[in-house]
Specification:
Layout lengths: L1 E6 L7 H13 L3 E7 L4 H11 L2 E3 L2 H7 L4 E6 L8 H10 L5 E4 L11 E6 H5 L6 H7 L5 E3 L1
Parallel strand pairs: 1-2, 1-4, 2-3, 5-7
Antiparallel strand pairs: 4-6, 5-6
């Protein structure tokens, strides 16, 4: 099971959508816990915490340190997964897969689609000032793409 961390940054209005997407993954038994990292409108965060059970962290480093699973799925609040992503992720994990990039919808010319990073907690914790860009780079070019 995964610990999921949503890096909120200034995307508070998008948090309900990404947390709703995670509900299906939790039902499938893939998600152990969810944490919102990096803030947002305080009232919204408290409502989401009450309604979804998501934990709150000041930043990504704090969320990584508090994660209970050895494998983390870290995404931005702008992540919109592709159809069938849960099945693809479950298959990847069943086959013993570890680190990967989960590609999402969107993007365009010269703009990468928002994605998520599947990474080991130890590797993520070893980064100074982690963010999604650094986490993606930490996986290097050999990471499997899911989505």
């Amino acid at each position: 099971m995964l610990s999921v961390i949503v890096e909120a940054q200034n995307e508070g209005e998008r948090l309900p959508g990404v947390l709703a997407v995670l509900t299906s993954a939790a039902v499938e038994g893939l998600v152990r816990e969810a944490t919102i990292a990096g803030g947002g409108p305080e009232e919204l965060l408290q409502v989401l915490r009450e309604e979804t059970g998501a934990e709150l962290a000041q930043d990504l480093a704090e969320a990584i340190g508090a994660a209970r699973s050895d494998l983390l799925l870290i995404m931005g609040a702008d992540f919109r997964p592709r159809l069938g992503w849960i099945e693809a992720l479950a298959l990847h994990l069943r086959e013993g897969g570890r680190e990967a990039i989960v590609t999402g919808e969107g993007g365009g010319f010269l703009r990468r689609a928002p994605g998520a990073v599947l990474i080991g907690r130890a590797k993520a914790a070893g980064l100074v000032h982690p963010d999604l860009h650094r986490l993606r780079r930490a996986l290097s070019g050999g990471a499997r793409r899911i989505g």
